[in-house]
Amino acid sequence: MEEQSFWLKDMIVLGHGAPNEVRKIKGAQGRCACIWSEKTGYCRINPIPHGYLYDWEIIDVEVRKPSNDGRENTFIIYNYENDWSKMYLHIKVHKDEKGNRMKLGRKDAVALIRKLATDSFSKVRDVKRSFGIIKPSRISGFLEKNLDNSVQQTTLFDFDNLVMNQKDYKWIPCIHYTCSEPCISKHPHKSKIVEWGCYQWMIKDPNNEAHCKKVFDNLRINQEGWEHYLLIGNIRTYPKTYIIVKVIRFKNKEI
Length: 255
What we know:
- With 255 residues, this protein is mainly beta.
- It folds into 2 domains: 6-93, CATH 2.40.50; 119-254, no CATH class.
- Helices cover 14% and strands 35% of the residues.
- The strands form 3 sheets. A 5-stranded mixed β-barrel has the order 1-3-4-6-5.
- The longest helix has 11 residues, at 106-116.
């Protein structure tokens, strides 16, 4: 029996994970997105093709409940298996009267994140929430060797046309952080970053450790004049393990 579909409406896109292979569609890559609304709260939706959604946009999306994922507020794009080339049927970005895609302005985005950033790691984990936003009191970035790396000879590829999934990268960007809100878990926390933009940077020279390390410069880690927040989300196979979906950063003069 086919699952009933329903619409999540007026949702704000907070972040995207790096792409992974969509097993039911040969050769396709999809991303997982975190969306939020005042009415519904945090939701996880997937798979999303490249170019359909951008951070801070306001969307309506048609989804169904998954059959093999028990995480809170986790949904699958309805009928993606048959409609991959026409996902506009199920993902509707709000537009203004001129037909421009609508998104939160910078001031509204800052205000929203500050309002939501009341979490600590243990606060999210202990109630089995799918997502939370943490304002770290300390943060540092480092690369870790990917032991599951499946691309052994990436130098043979043309990197301008290279397609890579998360598991294919030689290096994994990670963060150590300390929660500013009360947290009963051991500090500092260590989490890998799955933010799409980080992997877009690394794919330019994925075997070069020095190049990949510059991802932390792009994230403005330990740079003065920047305010950081961590959007964390749990993983399906180990729901008590959390990764960083996005390192949200604002320049102080923008705030």
